[in-house]
Design brief:
The chain is mostly helical. The protein has 14 helices and no strands. It comes from Sphingomonas xanthus.
Length: 295
């Protein structure tokens, strides 16, 4: 790795990626409209959760491809990232099963994810890493907003809210891993080439994310009998106005295109600290050990 590329990496030297092996909703599964009794709020989060088991497996695959020969600190962070993502996939698979039990059909949403991922996998591995790098920034800024403003989950059922908060914490904690892996993998590229590729990928990822998550939420609302202009109006209001998650993350999303960008330009570990002070201590369960062995 060149000295110039090392200088651009700003992941905190004292950062530790800590897998928290927790299980949610096994005894008390979420109800159909678990998010405040609101079908729209529930649909948005359910549509996002439907992407995680396959999506996070793709992230792991994409990053691990470039672990060989990586600097020791980055290689260790990739291992921590892998373990966290494996556990996330497990918990969202359980969460999605609860949605199925509540009467929702998620197959169409999952098939859409697989279709998108197959298109990326048909390209060279660097394309998968680039997509992962962009999507990890997206998930990190969503996670930041989710934790920074308690109103997003204020009316959610307890176990469901705790699942999303736990997931958000770990997305923040490992938010630099895919980006640092991207810097390592493209260490021989010019700055201009790296910026051009990452900007194009982020624009494509953003377009696909908004289209597919909106489409997925509308499908779940259709299953609740909410369709047409009423469904569109309520969904767009929720996403862009109040609570307006998508509007609130715009500035953080746009920062991705600035010279000198790095996910850790904003050190938001205070959100992790607050969570750790309020949540029970994580136990290093069997799944963590199994995932580390596979990493």
């Amino acid at each position: 790795m060149t000295s110039a590329s090392i200088a651009r990496q700003k992941t905190p030297a004292d950062l530790t990626i800590t897998p928290r092996d927790r299980r949610f909703g096994r005894d008390a599964k979420p109800t159909r409209w678990w998010n405040g009794g609101d079908p729209v709020a529930t649909a948005v989060y359910n549509a996002l959760s439907a992407t995680f088991p396959k999506g996070e497996a793709f992230f792991v695959e994409s990053v691990r491809t470039f672990r060989e020969g990586a600097p020791p600190k980055l290689a260790e962070e990739i291992r921590g990232f892998t373990t966290q993502e494996v556990i996330h996939s497990r918990e969202h698979a359980a969460f999605n099963k609860a949605a199925l039990d509540a009467g929702y059909v998620l197959q169409g949403l999952e098939d859409r994810v697989e279709w998108r991922l197959d298109m990326v996998r048909s390209k060279p591995p660097i394309a998968s890493l680039a997509a992962t790098m962009a999507l990890e920034h997206f998930t990190a800024i969503l996670a930041h907003e989710l934790l920074a403003d308690p109103r997003h989950l204020a009316n959610a059922e307890g176990e469901a809210a705790r699942l999303w908060q736990w997931h958000a914490v770990e997305e923040i904690e490992h938010k630099g891993v895919a980006y640092d892996t991207w810097l390592y993998a493209t260490r021989d590229w010019t700055r201009r080439k790296r910026w051009t590729v990452k900007a194009k990928v982020m624009m494509l990822v953003t377009r696909n994310f908004l289209v597919d998550r909106t489409r997925g939420a509308l499908e779940l609302l259709r299953q609740d009998g909410i369709t047409g202009p009423r469904a569109w109006g309520r969904l767009l209001w929720f996403m862009w106005v109040r609570p307006g998650m998508m509007r609130k993350i715009f500035g953080a999303w746009a920062s991705f295109f600035l010279p000198g960008f790095h996910p850790w330009n904003e050190d938001d570990r205070a959100l992790i600290k607050t969570y750790e002070q309020q949540a029970p201590a994580a136990e290093p369960g069997r799944m963590v050990r199994r995932a580390k062995a596979a990493a």
